[in-house]
Specification:
Elements (H helix, E strand, L loop, with lengths): L2 H12 L3 H13 L2 H8 L3 H15 L4 E4 L2 E4 L1 H28 L2 E7 L1 H8 L3 H7 L3 E7 L13 E6 L6 E14 L2 H6 L6 H4 L4 E4 L9 H7 L10 E4 L2 H9 L5 E4 H10 L10 E12 L6 H16 L7
Parallel strand pairs: 3-4, 3-5, 7-8
Antiparallel strand pairs: 1-2, 5-10, 6-9, 6-10
Helix pairs in contact: 2-3, 2-4, 2-5, 3-4, 6-12
Length: 315
């Protein structure tokens, strides 16, 4: 037998039962068999047996058992110092290893529409490429602030000028009217902006200061918008697009959110008029702390996906 094997064999033979050491450590810390049993989820008799078995194994008395009390002997104090330090180091190391072995988690926030129509269809690709990173996706209208809401990263639309946030541009946006093929069949006159004013328009009722609504769109096209908000109003863009695909009216299509519907033929562009917005989509992170590597991984992946869409910022 090699020297190292002999040393391990001697160590194995000289070590008391780990269960007995754990029971002794708890009893020594509490100076109470009852409290040790409660902490360990054992009966008092089981803890007493383990402690007495340890005393028999070592050939020393570890506790002086007094009337309604117990005290450590000098041998017990020496063993307590060794066992307590050893068990704590083992527990700390085990906790560290569990943390290292578990999947990294990141929290990502964006609008309900962007999460539904752009991000979620791409998530399977991220999971396939990075199976050890767990994503927690939260969708809010309006946006949350990554600097104050416990979010690791967010994707939002706007000017990109948000104090306290580190921003990276994903892509610009193009906005144009969309409707279902069935709606256009029922309204063949819908071929120009003047005819558009007479249609059932689908409105998004949100408080985004940067969101482009029908009034803004018409004015940017050099036209007066229809009086009031004729048509239907919705509080989420997902409901609005669902109504558009069901033939209930004409919606403003944000290209990156409706591309899949256009490709599938569920929505069409009844006229060529479109508006290139001044804002853009950005991936943002808090600027007041070091970015964890898994957040960097997600950010880099989002930027690559944006570039792959054909108009993202080059990496």
């Amino acid at each position: 037998m090699r020297g190292s094997d002999m040393a391990v064999s001697r160590l194995h033979k000289s070590l008391p039962s780990v269960g007995a050491l754990v029971a002794f450590e708890a009893a020594a810390r509490h100076l109470s068999i009852t409290q040790a049993a409660r902490e360990l989820g054992l009966t008092q008799a089981a803890v007493s047996r383990k402690v007495r078995g340890l005393e028999d194994d070592l050939g020393v008395t570890l506790f002086r058992r007094l009337h309604r009390a117990m005290r450590l002997t000098s041998e017990g104090e020496r063993l307590q110092a060794a066992v307590s330090g050893g068990l704590h180091r083992i527990a700390e190391t085990a906790g560290y290893l569990r943390q290292q072995g578990s999947a990294a988690q990141i929290s990502v926030s964006t609008s309900i529409a962007f999460a539904t129509f752009w991000l979620m269809p791409r998530i399977p690709k991220f999971r396939a490429a990075y199976p050890d990173i767990e994503l927690r996706i939260t969708a809010f209208d309006p946006y949350v602030d990554p600097g104050h809401d416990g979010v690791d990263a967010a994707i939002r639309y706007g000017s990109g000028n948000w104090p306290g946030l580190r921003t990276q541009r994903l892509f610009d946006e193009e906005i144009f009217p969309v409707c279902s093929p069935g709606y256009l069949s029922e309204h063949p006159e819908l071929s120009d902006v003047d005819a558009l004013k007479q249609q059932t328009l689908l409105h998004l009722d949100v408080a985004y200061h940067s969101w482009i609504d029908w009034g803004t769109w018409f004015r940017e096209m050099g036209e007066q918008p229809p009086p009031g908000r004729r048509g239907l109003q919705f509080n989420t863009y997902t409901l609005l697009i669902q109504a558009a695909t069901a033939g209930q009216g004409v919606a403003l299509g944000w290209r990156h959110l409706v591309d899949d519907f256009l490709d599938a033929g569920a929505l069409i562009r009844p006229l060529d008029a479109s508006l290139h917005s001044q804002g853009a989509y950005y991936v943002v992170r808090p600027d007041n702390s070091e970015t964890p590597p898994e957040v960097e991984t997600f950010t880099d992946w989002v930027l690559r996906e944006a570039e792959a869409s054909g108009d993202g910022e080059p990496g």
